[in-house]
């Protein structure tokens, strides 16, 4: 099964750990002054090392990525063992280091370069050892054949790697060492680094079995404190022969001859920390002299006698090459220390995942980098006088590209700052192969290198730094704000849309975001009511002077950090969880009995649960619109299953189910991108831009040239790219949740009409189509007539004083709530900045007066009466009050979050980019998505509606009404 205990553990390790991080020892000093600042730097350095990897591959003309360093292995064996000495000093008896304890080990010996060069080439050598101390306890020991690093810290290390990347000839190497390196680190530092490298690589190596390998960086050894370790040849053994310079692989061949007749053994030794002057922890370029820190033997590493040319040995060597060694694969007692070691956590994880195809990167073409800066500056200047939506279409499109680039640079914030400081982890278990081609039930393993990214339970991110102001939670009173500025006085229609658009966005939001509420009897929020007002908080309860509702469950944070980090109880991915559920138990219960691929339906309708609400992936806030959408896409899933069975009869039912889920989820993402959004943001620029997101630019040379100049990676459409997180782990954000508060779209009543003759069947208030009543109405009216009724009716406009009456007083989970007040309070308490700060944070000018926000004098006066200052305006109120661009259904400020996140939701998703391919989806499945649309879904299940859908527009635009016959 896709969900396993191992995966759950990995998800938890990626998400926030409530335990406080380990305090830095007296030996460590974080670059930038804090673990968080240092981690940001290390993540950037990791990206640069991945670029070095690609340079090595391209220079060597290789077809696949190699290790960034130590690319060429001379030995990879699984049958080794590490045995601690019986007389191990008592203060070194820590953790797995016990007298006489013996553990199986894996050993890899290699050249240190990033390309596979002949063994006689000047180079360092390396040893990597993985000790299996228990079922879930590993210790990776990494050492190199020179006692010190050429680099004092991670910055120098990466600068050297970049300077030498791709340098194969002596001229290129000289240019890297004497030009590129000094420009990066300064002449004095470059000179020291060159001398270290020159000394280290002059050494002639005849046999790796007779070399000594040093850790160069320190590790903690429990209470004994920091040590550096070395692996030196054990006493005895034959000397190294002269190197055979005519054999490019002589080091491997020499080891094969040795192991054919006997074991190879190395002694593991440690040097103890003395003081920062003689044995520094942070500076890897300083040798710990044996005169200052004597060598203490602690264990013996033995590589057992074997035939390296046997089939078993060759298979073992291939498996070893798939391993990702990292000094952080250990326990807290043996935590790596020092800047270089801390950098290795992020760098090695990134490089290994990139090499193994688990992590992707798409470097920006040089011409995009070069042109991006002046383009962003130019449009920043233009937008002071002319907003993007008033520019000619070609310039408007380029303006949006520039704005999106700016938002990516400044408005992607990870509030968790994971692994700062870094923590040890066990070596990752073998990946379940099914996870490569199937969405997991809970959203884990979308990014195979970060299993918990975007999964159920992952925290919401941020687009703007949060502002936590408990003193303003009730200022101004949210009930007063709701009564004065949100309450629907009369229904204001959005005449360019139909009610299907309102149902659709709720259907989507349920897939994307859901904050967990405290259970009944748990923590509550109390909102004071205006003088003289009362509220009944529970059915049958007495009148109270406060409005009370359940608090959101937050993630506990260490230290003095404010309680504004929340987990998403849905996955952050576009994975159809509202249809399929967010865990294996729910997903299995919704399928046909016996493991069938299809979803359970009863005469084409969803089966009913105990409370009368249909059984589906997400059932909160249920109403007729959700019954329509869930029924439609459950039928669509089953249609895909039927087509897959017919086309691929050998597919198992489980494979059919998971493939159909991929297809339906991708189709939903496509519909939202190229149909719903252009309907609610009805402008030519948006229509072209969103279709470009999905399928690439229009087939016009000028459009393609413009995109090539500024964002060439988008030329084929995002599904033809690779996943890209733009430096911040993917997550939906609290700001995204805020701009998708679109409750004004919902009507106060629903008029049901017959799709054949146009006659009105009945008119129902919203409470009459909520909860269990919804499915009763749908089955009575029929899917086709309900779709038609929604298609000819308008939703509400997203503006002030248009919040649905039914949502301002309704029962949910034993509470009576006013959802407009809840929305205001949630936004404040989650730390989303108030409107003016929100607007400024998205690179728009601040408003200076209420009249600047609201053109209508009466509205401006009411805003001023409620808030007093423009800086106090609630974000949701400001977004509703804005005068949107022509054709827009919501504000330009809200659109900026959409502009950033709409692309990101597709671009970060492996199943909508690198794995959006026929090998994963099947050719039929990919074709289904490519040719599919909301119209095709509706007509597949209700073909009788063909003549009613709008021509030249999406089904979210008003349909053609049937005129009732006069006879």
UniProtKB/TrEMBL annotation:
One annotated GO molecular function: peroxidase activity
Record InterPro entries: A_dioxygenase, Catalase_sf, Haem_peroxidase_animal, Haem_peroxidase_sf, Haem_peroxidase_sf_animal, Oxylipin_biosynth_metab
Biased composition (Polar residues): 1-12
Entry superkingdom: Bacteria
Cofactor: Ca(2+)
One Pfam family cited in the UniProt record for this chain: An_peroxidase
CDD domains listed in its UniProt record: PIOX_like (cd09818)
Record's keyword terms, sorted: Dioxygenase, Fatty acid biosynthesis, Fatty acid metabolism, Heme, Iron, Lipid biosynthesis, Lipid metabolism, Metal-binding, Oxidoreductase, Oxylipin biosynthesis, Peroxidase, Plant defense
Region of interest: Disordered: 1-33
UniProt KW S-adenosyl-L-methionine keyword: no
PROSITE patterns reported in the protein's UniProt record: PEROXIDASE_3
Signal peptide positions on this chain: none
PANTHER family: ALPHA-DIOXYGENASE 1, PROSTAGLANDIN G/H SYNTHASE
Protein name according to UniProt: Peroxidase
Organism of derivation: Streptomyces coffeae
């Amino acid at each position: 099964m896709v969900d396993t205990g191992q995966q759950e553990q990995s998800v938890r390790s990626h998400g926030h750990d409530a335990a406080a991080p380990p305090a830095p020892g007296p030996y460590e000093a974080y670059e930038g002054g804090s673990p968080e600042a240092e981690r940001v730097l290390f993540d950037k350095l990791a990206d640069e090392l991945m670029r070095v990897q690609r340079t090595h591959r391209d220079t060597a003309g290789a077809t696949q990525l190699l290790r960034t360093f130590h690319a060429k292995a001379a030995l990879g064996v699984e049958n080794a063992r590490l045995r601690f000495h019986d007389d191990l000093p008592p203060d070194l008896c820590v953790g797995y280091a016990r007298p006489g304890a013996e553990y199986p080990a894996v050993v890899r010996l290699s050249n240190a370069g990033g390309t596979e060069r002949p063994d006689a080439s000047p180079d360092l050598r390396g040893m990597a050892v993985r000790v299996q101390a228990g079922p879930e306890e590993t210790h990776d020991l990494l050492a190199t054949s020179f006692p010190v690093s050429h680099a004092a810290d991670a910055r120098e290390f990466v600068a050297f790697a970049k300077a030498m990347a791709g340098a194969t000839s002596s001229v290129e190497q000289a240019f890297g060492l004497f030009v590129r390196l000094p420009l990066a680190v300064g002449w004095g530092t470059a000179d020291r680094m060159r001398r270290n490298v020159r000394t280290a690589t002059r050494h002639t190596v005849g046999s790796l079995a007779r070399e000594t390998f040093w850790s160069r960086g320190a590790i903690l050894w429990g209470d004994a404190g920091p040590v550096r370790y070395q692996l030196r040849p054990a006493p005895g053994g034959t000397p190294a022969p002269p190197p055979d310079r005519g054999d490019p692989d002589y080091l491997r061949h020499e080891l094969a001859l040795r192991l054919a007749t006997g074991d190879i053994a190395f002694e593991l030794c440690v040097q103890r920390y003395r003081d920062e002057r003689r044995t520094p922890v942070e500076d890897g370029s300083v040798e710990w002299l044996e005169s200052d820190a004597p060598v203490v033997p602690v264990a013996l590493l033995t590589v057992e006698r074997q035939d390296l040319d046997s089939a078993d040995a060759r298979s073992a060597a291939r498996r070893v090459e798939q391993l990702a060694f990292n000094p952080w694969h250990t326990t807290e007692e043996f935590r790596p220390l020092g800047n270089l070691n801390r950098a290795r956590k992020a760098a090695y994880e990134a490089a290994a995942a990139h090499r193994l195809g688990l992590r992707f990167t798409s470097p920006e073409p040089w011409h995009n980098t070069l042109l991006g800066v002046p383009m962003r500056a130019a449009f920043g200047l233009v937008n002071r006088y002319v907003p993007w939506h008033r520019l000619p279409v070609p310039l408007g499109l380029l303006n949006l590209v520039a704005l999106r680039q700016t938002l990516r640079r400044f408005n992607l914030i990870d509030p968790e700052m994971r692994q700062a400081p870094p923590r040890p982890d066990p070596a990752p278990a073998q990946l379940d192969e099914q996870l490569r081609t199937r969405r997991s039930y809970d959203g884990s393993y979308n990014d195979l290198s970060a299993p918990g990214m975007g999964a159920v339970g992952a925290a919401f991110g941020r687009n703007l730094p949060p502002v936590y102001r408990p003193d303003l939670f009730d200022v101004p009173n949210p009930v007063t704000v709701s009564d004065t500025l949100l309450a629907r006085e009369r229904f204001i229609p959005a005449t360019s849309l139909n009610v299907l658009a309102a149902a659709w966005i709720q259907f989507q939001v349920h897939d994307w975001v859901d904050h967990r509420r405290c259970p009944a009897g748990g923590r509550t929020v109390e909102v004071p009511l205006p003088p003289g007002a009362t509220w009944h908080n529970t059915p049958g309860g007495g009148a109270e002077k406060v409005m009370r509702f359940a608090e959101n469950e937050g993630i506990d944070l260490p230290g003095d950090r404010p309680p504004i980090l929340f987990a998403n109880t849905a996955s952050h991915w576009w994975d159809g969880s509202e249809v399929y559920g967010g865990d294996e138990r729910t997903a299995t219960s919704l399928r046909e009995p016996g493991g069938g691929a299809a979803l359970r339906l009863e005469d084409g309708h969803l089966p009913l649960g105990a409370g009368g609400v249909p059984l589906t992936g997400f059932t909160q806030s249920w109403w007729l619109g959700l019954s329509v959408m869930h029924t439609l896409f459950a039928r669509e899933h089953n249609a895909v299953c039927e087509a897959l069975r017919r086309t691929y009869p050998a597919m198992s039912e489980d494979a059919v189910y998971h493939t159909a889920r991929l297809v339906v989820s991708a189709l939903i993402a496509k519909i939202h991108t190229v149909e719903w959004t252009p309907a609610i943001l009805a402008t030519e620029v948006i229509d072209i831009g969103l279709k470009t997101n999905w399928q690439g630019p229009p087939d016009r040379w000028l459009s393609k040239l413009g995109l090539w100049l500024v964002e060439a990676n988008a030329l084929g459409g995002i599904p033809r790219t690779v996943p890209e997180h733009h430096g911040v782990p993917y997550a939906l954000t609290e700001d995204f949740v805020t701009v998708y508060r679109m409750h004004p779209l919902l009507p106060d009543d629903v008029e049901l009409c017959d799709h054949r003759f146009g006659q009105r069947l009945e008119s129902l208030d919203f409470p009459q189509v909520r909860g269990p009543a919804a499915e009763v109405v749908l089955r009575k009216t029929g899917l086709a007539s309900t779709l038609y009724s929604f298609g000819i009716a308008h939703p509400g406009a997203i503006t002030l004083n248009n919040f649905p009456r039914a949502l301002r007083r309704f029962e949910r989970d034993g509470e009576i709530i006013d959802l407009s007040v809840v929305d205001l309070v949630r936004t404040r308490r989650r730390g989303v900045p108030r409107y003016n700060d929100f607007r400024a944070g998205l690179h728009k000018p601040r408003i200076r007066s209420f009249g600047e926000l609201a053109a209508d004098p009466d509205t401006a006066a009411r805003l001023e009466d409620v808030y007093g200052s423009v800086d106090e305006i609630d974000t949701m109120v400001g977004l509703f009050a804005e005068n949107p661009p022509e054709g827009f259904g919501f504000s330009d400020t809200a659109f900026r979050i959409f502009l950033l996140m709409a692309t990101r939701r597709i671009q970060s998703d492996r199943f909508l980019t690198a794995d959006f391919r026929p090998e994963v989806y099947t050719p039929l499945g990919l074709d289904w998505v490519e040719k599919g649309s909301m119209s095709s879904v509706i007509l597949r299940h209700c073909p009788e509606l063909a003549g009613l859908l709008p021509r030249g527009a999406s089904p979210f635009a008003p349909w053609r009404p049937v005129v009732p016959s006069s006879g």
